[in-house]
Amino acid sequence: MEITLINHASTLVDTGEIKILTDPWFRGSAFNNGWNLIYENQKSDEEILKLVDLIWISHEHPDHFQPNFFIKNREFIVNHKIKVLFQKTKDDRVKKFLKKQGIEVIDMFHGQNLKLSINTECIMFKAEFYDSAIFIKSKSSSYLNINDCQFSENELIKIKKKCGQIDFFFSQFSYAAWKGGKKFSNLREYAANEKLEILNSQYKIIQPRVLIPFASFIFFSHENNFYMNDKINTIEKVSNFLNQKKINYKILSPYIPIKVNRNMIINFDDTNCKKFWSEKYDNLTSKKLNRFEQSFDVKELNFLFLEFKRKIFSKNSTILMKLISKFRILGIFQPVNIDLYDVKKKICFNFFLENLEEISNDQICDVKMHSSNLAFIFKNEFGFDTLSVNALFESSYKGFKKLVFNFGIGSYNCSGMYVSLRSMFDINLIYLVFKKIFIFKKKLVNFSNN
């Protein structure tokens, strides 16, 4: 088996019989211009795709699945009979999109073996709401890619038991979402260090021949979120930590393959790879940053709000949403006051009002954001997911919780789940949502007091 890093979370796995490309994102921005790659690939898409038999997509986030990549390369992918591997979802959103392009999709089911060739098989492991990991095994070698999956220790133990010996273990190495706003640099530092400790814990459980940190080769690239880069884990910091923990690891850079030889030895000098990334991190401050190009007045936002609300109400029980909102102690579907600083307006968002309501400037708001961010949320079901990742807003914990318990329904629906009587009895799902909120609250409160 030979593994080549292409970029960020994209690798090319060559088992000798079949070549599998993972999560292609090679250039351009993601998360509504909130992220960019530290390095953009110089090779064309076709130069990379000509080596590929299958493409695996871990989940629908734009740093893993970019629709434009498949639209732009549709003809090449179809003509070369490249198939896509993707987890089976309730609504088949991704599958339907790809099939419209004429691209064949192979469904993957959690924990089930899928034979890819005579001596190559794989297993997909679903994580939380929509993420997934992949295990690929050839005749003599194996590869586990968990990208940014948030598996518990028990889940990792089960994965290890299912997979057996793992040669190459790929995992994310830095934080990748909002961490409380500009003033919480200590929370970002904590998140960065926590991510390293998670790597250490994962390594102990998985016990691979070699750990390969990846899926964090990005920077926060907007002029309003560039501050988020102040505590990210650089390759130098990651290397120092892993050396201290005596972990067997290698750093990869684009197009340089690592492999298990015939004697089952991984012999790879990553000195130049470390140098490659160090230079890229050192040049971050010289990067051209993204900016907001358009503002939306309240009238325009209200038009988008009505369409957003129509889509949400068409997929979810409006009666049940209203009933849930009556239990204020839950904090779900409660009004949110939003300061749209670019248009100098403050509004109240409430699912159950006919329109967005302008409020006086002396009102205290739950969140502060640019009007284009709110427009993006209204236009896209996954809009809040994007906002929580690109960190282009300021909020307290209480304000953030209100955002989650209003706009999070779009992300919920993207995963094929809906507010219905059936979902009310999904205890595991309810537990997961409140657990994530509680953990973040605990961290934010702790750092507010320090």
The CATH superfamily of the largest domain is identified as: Ribonuclease Z/Hydroxyacylglutathione hydrolase-like
- Poorly predicted runs are none
Major sheet: size, sense and barrel closure?
A: 7 strands, mixed
Averaging pLDDT over every residue, what do you get? 92
**What strand order characterises the main sheet?**
8-7-6-3-2-1-16
Radius of gyration: 22 Å
CATH topology tier name of the largest domain: Metallo-beta-lactamase, Chain A
CATH architecture of the largest domain: 4-Layer Sandwich
Name the beta content range.
15-25%
Count of spatially separate domains: 2
Total helical segments:
14
Helices and strands, with pairings:
Elements lengths: L1 E6 L2 E5 L4 E4 L6 E2 L4 E3 L7 H5 L4 E3 L10 H6 L1 H6 L3 E5 L5 H8 L4 E4 L4 E3 L5 E7 L3 E7 L4 E4 L7 H11 L4 E5 L12 H22 L3 E5 L3 E3 L14 H10 L12 E3 L11 H12 L15 H18 L2 H9 L9 E5 L4 E5 L7 E3 L7 E3 L1 H9 L3 H8 L2 E3 L1 H18 L12 H22 L2
Parallel strand pairs: 3-6, 6-7, 7-8, 12-13, 13-14, 17-20
Antiparallel strand pairs: 1-2, 1-16, 2-3, 4-5, 5-15, 9-10, 10-11, 11-12, 17-18, 18-19, 20-21
How would you sum up this structure, described in words?
- The structure is a single chain.
- This protein has two domains: 2-286, Metallo-beta-lactamase, Chain A (4-Layer Sandwich), CATH 3.60.15.10; 298-448, no CATH class.
- The strands form four sheets. A seven-stranded mixed beta sheet has the order 8-7-6-3-2-1-16, covered by helices on one side.
- It is globular.
- It has helices at residues 45-49, 67-72, 74-79, 93-100, 153-163, 185-206, 235-244, 271-282, 298-315, 318-326, 371-379, 383-390, 397-414, 427-448, and strands at 2-7, 10-14, 19-22, 29-30, 35-37, 54-56, 83-87, 105-108, 113-115, 121-127, 131-137, 142-145, 168-172, 210-214, 218-220, 257-259, 336-340, 345-349, 357-359, 367-369, 393-395.
- Helix 5 packs parallel to helix 6.
- It is built from 14 helices and 21 strands.
- It is of the alpha/beta class and 450 residues long.
- A hairpin with a 2-residue loop joins strand 1 and strand 2.
